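Need tokens for this chain, all 430 residues.
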Amino acid sequence: MAEEDKQSNNNLQPQVLDKSATEDLDAAGKSLSEALRISFIILKVIMAVLILAFLASGFKTVGSDEQALVLRFGKIRGVGEKRVLKPRTWPYWVFPYPVDTMVKIPVEKKVDLVIRSFWYYQTQERMLAEPSIEKMRVLPTLDPINDGYCITRSEKLDEPISGSGESDYNIVHCKWQLTYQIYHPERFFTNVYVKEVKPGDIYFDVITKSITPLLQSLFEDAIVTATVNYTIDDVMYEQVAGLTDDVRKLLQEKLDTIESGLKVVRIQMIDKTWPLQVDEAFQALVTASQDLETTISEARTYEERTLNEVAGPVAQELFEALQDKTISEEEMDSLWSQLAGTAQEKITEARAYRAKVVAGARANAEYFQELLPEYRKRPELVIHKIYQDAIERIFSNVDEKFIIPKGAEWRILVNRDPSLKPKNQQGAND
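Here are the structure tokens for all 430 residues:
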């Protein structure tokens, strides 16, 4: 009996163990299943967030000084005006990279490029030195390898840009500054090489560095082409504005030819000088030119003053009218009526003298008309009277008179008594 109970207990023990193990396995499965379910939910949320973040990265803004191009797999997207995105208050949406790429081009920013290629060679020490000290350190001759310079004509041409003709040439040193900006983003992006933008790089800086060699080459070529048509006096003094304008036109034509999308905003010659090796000669020339200008200015001032004194403000106009045969009499009379100054005084005196002569002639005519009856009666007496009146009038201002009868002897005293004074002096002394 005891043995049967023992055997029965042995049979029940494995059944209890199997049931307990099964219950443990069911609990573990449920925990794993729940963990997997939660993991999948979290994964879905993360994927959704990533997808939303990916799509949200497609929102792009364009700055107020920018315009943008959208590249879809490297090709510009859009047709017509839609190819270029302009600034607006709300963002644009494009497919995120690598489908679409937005390239922002700073169209409103103006960039300055200084050209020193035509300036003489300077060390850092010479750049910081005073001009007077720098001139003392100038080499006796120009070094064409290190020193930059431009060629100018010694004779003026009638047509600066397209003119031709033989001439001697002079050397001038000059510094230039170009101010430019991008005005056509599509042409610029399509036709101008720009280095690849690396992470952390600023696209504007990359653009500036990339196009500087191209602009410098075209700018220098335009300067050489334009400057050779001007004299050194034009470059130094007279035609600086005309030269800079010609350089601007030539450079813009070159940029338009290659459809660069770049616009020349301003060209400036920021410094200029003749070769320092001939500074003394040029200084003497400058002094002579200044003296010449001063003399010419003084002569013109004297001319204007003299004309104004002689004829008044209408002098120059009247002078030109006298040379012009097409001027009508009415216009000439109008100009003569405006005459002033010394000429007007002379004309007034001449008119007064004419009136006096005419009046005198008229008075004489009336006088002789009155004498005519007496002359017809006693001609010798009238003639003698007229002769006597004329003699009295002629000798009215004579200091001493000598009346010599007809047939009398004449004697001339060489050593007259100096105590005898003329009547004019006697009257003045009295």
